[in-house]
Amino acid sequence: MDATVEFSFPTRVVFGPGSVGGLGDLCADLGITRPLVITDPGLVAVGIPDRITAPLAAASLPHCVFHDIQGNPVERNVLDATQAFVDHGADGVIGLGGGSALDVAKAVRLRATHDLPLEEYDEYVEGWKKTHADVPPMIAIATTAGTGSEVGRAAVITLESTGRKTVLFGPHLMPNVAVLDAELTVGLPPTLTAWTGMDALTHSLEAYLSPNFHPFCDAVALHGLRLCFEFLPGAYENGSDTAARGMMLLASAMGATAFQKGLGATHSLAHPLSTLHGIHHGLANAVMLPTVLDYNEEAASRRLADVAHAIGAEGTAAESIATLSARVNIPGSLSELGITEADLPALAEEAILDGCHLTNPRKVTVDDMLDMYRATL
Ligand SMILES: [Fe+2]
Question: Are the CB atoms for 314 and 270 separated by under 8 Å?
């Protein structure tokens, strides 16, 4: 597909190669006259923000680019970006990037218009109840196909007062428009294409297996899974295949749409692998996924059969996922990522504290976490 198309579920999505060319019109739709573009240094190094600033300049919109943010964004990044927003006299934000830049952009909307300290908006203290709709408009432009942050309502920022990755969550943080332009993702190396793609797959899969009732999300999750199976190999093997790249962007947005239903134990096991050992989030999910599926089989056999049917599996869903992982060169064990038996107890202690497993189809204890890490070693 090479035309730009639009639909809403629930976010307005503008999809198509070259669709960032319409940014001037999108700003006009949202009443943005002085946008602040928030991105990261890695994208600046490869010139991606130029693709955004060119259409803004063509539309005569005075704009400013802020890129001083970290891979795992911290409160200082949000405060600095908010200062840039004020200094520019901005009236809207354009987040450009993977999860980090988009999360900072969302948090700037909060910081620029809400008076309480950021930790007051932590989801753990029901921060969403303190948010209001009067936030500057936001356009979210995804440069990776994985997190789906462009359609999400959460911003993950490490705050000084909490000392941990804090989830700022609220309906008003959801971007007004998500732009999915595959031309922005063609430079992503194969490893990151595979890892982020497996994150998108894990979102759809865990959402579908979550016991919460949400048939709309179930339908989106199953189709998101189909897209991952059909298009991840092509995006991995030929990075300039914008058709496959575009479908993976959709799969990513669909996974994030679906996981409002909840995630599962794979994410709880993956998070400490990232925080304690620096392993990429999508890679950590992909390596843990087959073990978690085995664990879930007795509690979710019918839903796993649905998944197998949806993806046209000849055997089980778990076998198909393992085959896909191998095809995109995901390692089959934690030891290949440098994890040893001695690391496992601390990982399990952290994993059980993570909230994602609360919607796993089978209850998980700290001993189960340890067993699953050990089974993946
Ligand atoms: Fe994830």
Answer: no
Clarify whether residues 254 and 125 are in a common domain: no
Q: What are phi and psi of 13, to 5 degrees?
A: -115, 130
Give the residue numbers spanning the domain of 315: 189-376
Query: Is residue 200's pLDDT more than 60?
Result: yes
Residue 185 CA to chain centroid, in angstroms? Answer: 15
Which amino acid is residue 72, in one-letter code?
A: N
Same domain as 230, residue 161: no
How far is it, in rounded angstroms, from Cα 369 to Cα 114?
39
For ligand 1, an ion, list residues with CB under 5 A.
Answer: 199
Whole-number Å distance, alpha carbon 271 to ligand 1 midpoint, is 9
Distant-in-sequence, close-in-space partners of 351: CB < 8 Å, separation ≥ 6: 265, 268, 269, 271, 272, 357, 366, 369, 373
Query: In whole numbers, what is the pLDDT of the chain averaged over residues?
Result: 94
User: Which one has a higher pLDDT value, 340 or 6?
Assistant: 340
Overall domain count for the chain: 2
Gap from CA of 340 to ligand 1 centroid (Å): 23
Segment 88-103, tens digit of pLDDT: 999 999 999 988 999 9
What is the spatial distance between Cα 344 and Cα 340, in angstroms, rounded to a whole number? Answer: 7
* 308 shares a domain with 275: yes
Which residue among 184, 211, 235 closes a domain? 184
Considering the domain architecture, whether residues 206 and 344 belong to the same structural domain is answered as yes
Kindly state whether residues 157 and 203 are assigned to the same domain: no
Question: Ligand 1 mean position to 130 CA, how many Å?
Answer: 26
| 224 contacts: CB under 8 Å, gap ≥ 6 | 200, 201, 203, 204, 250, 251, 254, 255, 258
Do residues 84 and 145 share a domain? yes
Which of 133, 154, 184 lies at the terminal end of a domain, its last residue? 184
